[in-house]
Structure formats: C-alpha cells, structure tokens
Amino acid sequence: MKWTTASETNNDYFILERSYDGEHFDKVDQIAGYGAGTTTETRHYEYTDTKDCDGVVYYRLHQVDIDGQESYSDIVALNCMKSKDGLSVYPNPARSTLSFSFNEDADGIINIQILDVYGKVVKWERSSTQHGLNNLHTNIETLAPGVYYLQLDRMDKSGLVRQVRFVKN
Asked: What is the pTM of this model?
C-alpha cells in the first residue's frame, strides 16, 4: 500500500488497518511519520501487507497526531483473487505505473505484454514469478492516454494466458 501526504500538521504516526467485512477493522501495523510533526513538503509512505488474503480485503489509514487527535482515510477495497487465472490491475485508471497481482502454481517466467485496442503489442517485457501471490509493476508513462490490455503469458507447457483491460490517463 502506498500513500502520499501533501502536507502534515502535528502528524505522529499512521496505523494501517485491515477488514474482511468493510466494517470491523484490525491493526496491521504502525508506520512512523517522518518525525517532522508539521511540514508543507510532500511525504511518501509505503507498506506491504504480507498476510495471505482471499476474496475482498478492505484497508484504511488511522492517522494519529502528536496531541492525540485522530482521523481516518477513506476505505480502499482490494480483490485478492485466488484462482489460477485471476489477474488484478491497480490503479485503474493509471498514469505512470501499472501494478498487477496474480497467483502462480509454481516458480516460472512470464511474458508481460501491453496491447492497444487493436491487439497490437505496444510494450513487452519478461519477468520471473514465484509460487503464490505475485505483485509486479510496469512503467506506462510513454503510452498515450486510452484503453489497453495487460496480457500475461506463462512460459511453460500450460499455455495459460491471462488478460485484463485498463485505462491509461
């Protein structure tokens, strides 16, 4: 999970919270602020939740100030597909980086292709994968705004091909 603050006033720390029903949240971890308390500079934060998930998982940030004041972010839903042919992209629409998640039955190699609406390959790369959940990213800054398809081809005898549509802003 990544988030950015444009400015912070009396910020002490964040608590990342997870829910499986969208109503009852549990603490995942506490993430320290930059220690500046108050700043007008943009700050970037990142946290990876390593817990396996199945189905839809909800997240929110609980922000705590130095003086104890608290606030909550909007809730974000993440669909963790467990089927072997599931493929999830985010954010969608995307501007500069497209992230995608999928499950693999074994370690291997995949071809990553981005196709335009006519089926023409506009970007290609290859990546190693591991058994279980894989989270990869690709830079799409050079693509013109429009609709595209992310296609993953497994480089083994299974011939498994996964494809999902996304929008580039």
From this structure: 0.53
